[in-house]
Design goal:
Elements: H1 9-28, H2 33-40, H3 44-52, H4 59-69, H5 72-76, H6 85-93, H7 108-111
Length: about 120
Amino acid sequence: MQPVSPLPIPVKRALRKLGQDIKDARKRRRIPMALLAERARISRSTLTKVEKGDESVALGIYAAVLFALGLVEGLGNLADPSTDAIGRSIEERNLPERVRLPSTRTTKAGAGKRGGANDD
């Protein structure tokens, strides 16, 4: 009997796609597995797991492989606020209906007192 993974199916699919995309990027660059593994400072067997989208591989390993391929910039944008449609939607619902400037209450007596002898 195979152990049940705690990850939801969409997460597994996303990891498999990431692994396949990494594999395709390596092949487009004509980089052998052994060389990419060396550049990412991982073993070839770990690179095989990465290219399969194995969920047991640490995120840092995926990041190292992306860096070795010159694709690490995309990693920094995964949770970028500009692509967070749900977060923006929630934020928009919580916007105030009206925005007012803070009231500045000045008394007539205090309004003309500038540069007096008691001002410190």
